[in-house]
Amino acid sequence: MGLLSDPSISTQSKLVDGLARHVRKVCTVLYVAGVAWFFCLALPEFNHGTYLSENALSPGLVYPEIRVDANRLAIQLLEELQRERKDHLSTTPHAWIAAKMNEFGLETHTHNYTLRYPFGGGKEYHGKNIYGILRAPRIASTEGIVFTAPYRAASSVHTDISPSVPLLLAFADFARRKNYWAKDLIFLVTEQEQLGMQAWLEAYHDGDRDLDVSKAYLRPGNLPARAGSLQAALNIEVQDLEIDYVDVRIEGLNGKLPNLDMFNLVQRIMAREGIASGYKQTPRKKRRHSKSLFETNLRQMLAMLATQSSGVPNGNHGLFHRYRIDALTIAAHRRATHATLKGQPGSAAVPLLKAIEGIARSLNNLLERFHQSFFFYVIVNNDRYISIGDYMPALVALVACAFVKAYLMWSTLPSTEAGGELDTEERDADTDVEAEKFELPYGSVLIYLTATLLIGFLCNVLPLQQYFLEIPMGAAPLTTSVLSFLSLIGFILPFVVVLPPGGLELLHVAFLLIYGCSLIVIGLLNFALGFFVAVLTVPLVIALETKEDTSRSTLRHAIRLLALILNPMMIVYVIVLAMTFYQFPELPLQKILLRAATAAMDASAYGLIDSVLYGNFLYFVISTVLLPLWIICWTLALSKRRDYADYVEFEESPASSPQPQSPSQAKVKTS
């Protein structure tokens, strides 16, 4: 007679067995709940209104002091800069910028840096930044604020933002005449945009002191002068002095964001000056059919997550975040028709200059770094947001599918079931028959996992090895060739390596645990990337079979096809193909496919370059995390598993009739 503690008759065992039989349904419910929760966040009942947590900012409590003469100076400087640009079509007029900073009384310095291009065969490129420091007259140089403007050469293919430099210099001339600054003000003009910004930040904080010059790709050099500890930064990108609206850009490197208080500060100052501004602001157009509030909010949320998921900052401000400096970009777009503002000729730039003054004076009031508001949030509207405590449950519900399935699979592994049943038979029958034990092949599975991780590691190392760099190929073909070759090895690996009995089940459990932990870590570092990866891949994780079912051959083939499509390189190509089709709908299908393939190759090379220069971990996540996980998933999709009863029947077959055994057949050890 069995005891009450017998696991074969316990309520917990029956519950686990019942859940294991319906594991797909349980995981599907969790998946739907996670996606539904995310969609509900677009409703006003699930998000919150913005507010200022830092009272020291005190936006709008002082009257702006900038007048029309600052606008006239900006116009004059813009005319002079346009004449200089004719003589510097592909370079930066460093001498003119430095001369103007000296003329306005700033402590002007030049910063030189060197780039050793990873795929350039040892070629070096030199750049130069110009910056001026306005020392705080009321306190020692212990804290500082940065105002930066990137300079784009006349030959650049990007939008002309040359008015940014005159506007920055006009504000510097105004700030020099005031004595209420409690922080050093740094006015920086960078060359080569983000590359110059990255070099300046590295030189400001570290320099060449702890740098191996022979191995570094970016040698930032040393700054001749520094200010205090940087508290905040404002990047200015202006297309014309006659502006229509201001787009406030906040996404930084690896999806990091500035403190929400800084975004709210800019919004309030811009509204006070009558400037149309906002996150992903667009021109105001009259539309016949307005979208619903839910659709508008959902589009805004998805647009922000799409920008964050790439990990690429959409402005120079994004590189400040890794140094714990809150920064954002105000991108002013030109008017469609150059109509003067409020009928006052020559005063178009005054509202923007007043807004910059208001932001600077509010930042000047800070007693400490931004810390009271949120650093992890999603902008729903210009005055609505979602905090991390509201959107994180959506990712947790998606990842819970992997952990629930892993627990149920582990609870029903052959070793657990066989041991419990045979022990009960021994106690009931009181026989001398020893229990059959099924040992899981931990060593084989560990070796297989190590092999897949090694493939991902080689994706990061091989493209930058000297032997591969000497191959006469461009950066894009070389990187794509290495990734394709290693992906092909991962594709063939399940056909070459056959795990011993029980190895597939154990590999499945290990895959679910590694997959869930990886998504949690990625989601904490970059929620957008983790959420999109979970939405795409969790259905495949749910569909993977735990036991062989010969009656569902169609489903098994569909799972294998889905696993093949979800190859990381295939996903990158599909995303680039969709973007190409959206931007060039007039092209024929053949040219779209070819252009998308070329763009996908370039994306792989740019991802690797961003990884080694800026620290963008998107390439690392795709190659070192997602590719090994895909190889394991592909192995499980191809596998043919057998129940524990089949292993026992095979072991009990007569020894007098030996038959050739395939590697996939089981071997049960008896003690």
From TrEMBL:
Signal peptide coordinates: none
Membrane-crossing residue ranges in chain numbering: 445-464, 476-497, 509-542, 562-584, 617-637
Biased composition (Low complexity): 653-671
InterPro entries, alphabetized: Gaa1
Keywords carried by this UniProt record: Membrane, Transmembrane, Transmembrane helix
Pfam families: Gaa1
One GO BP annotation of this record: attachment of GPI anchor to protein
Region (Disordered): 651-671
GO CC entries: GPI-anchor transamidase complex
UniProt protein name: Glycosylphosphatidylinositol anchor attachment 1 protein
Gene: GAA1
